[in-house]
């Protein structure tokens, strides 16, 4: 009797991949994968699945296929896994997996999904879980997947903050309604002397600095503030305030939070380096356009750099562009 297999996810892998934990399967079992579009289908034993989960070199059976259903034969009795690469986020590709054991063999419960706790047992054929899903269930799953992909597309993978794409979208949204301008402030910031840290300690340490700064900034801001990593060691903050003084106070909260964070270069080290940031602030009401607002906040940031760093500067009309801070 065919056995339908439930899907799961593996910690550390992109949600783009669906993982099916087949459990112990007898040699000669056929694994059937139903696809909605072209996909990469990988069948691997448990040892190779662990290598795959850790990003190491692994061996598998299968590959890119346009056939649906795709069928793969299990060559020997062991614990097995199927990983399906849902190619094309826009297609919201879907997949279903079932095993067809050879005559006389009993299908086993699925293996535990690494890092996810106890996996639910596979549904027996004919049970409610094995019946075709309704249109409402399919729509709900598609919407959930779409929201997941949107979150991935708008998140900086290193720091967990919003990325430049999301930052630009939020800025555009603000300027679409003139009522937003008077109470909106843009704060731009970057890490002081970041290049010297990268050159001295390497990019791995640089990445740790970026994560630490991002966490300090995020933890210091009001809940309604929007923070993003806009590129390299640069960050952007958008806040709704009642006055420029309130915006300045919020910027200073972020600056002091980073300044008070002790950063160690090696795990277990007791002494760390001082990391600081410089910030530039401009009220949206002072700008003629979205580009103008960004330019003016950037001028204020360079003002902080030229005045000694580790400070917040507010845009003034007499500020001149100086792209080579001291």
TrEMBL record:
Q: Which reaction does it catalyse?
A: 2 GTP = 3',3'-c-di-GMP + 2 diphosphate
Q: What is its EC number?
A: 2.7.7.65
Residues covered by the GGDEF domain: 182-317
The top EC class is transferase
Which Gene3D superfamilies does the annotation name? 3.30.70.270, Atu1913-like
For this protein, the record's PANTHER family field holds: DIGUANYLATE CYCLASE DGCM-RELATED (PTHR45138:SF9), REGULATORY COMPONENTS OF SENSORY TRANSDUCTION SYSTEM (PTHR45138)
Name this polypeptide is given: diguanylate cyclase
State the species of origin: Hoeflea ulvae
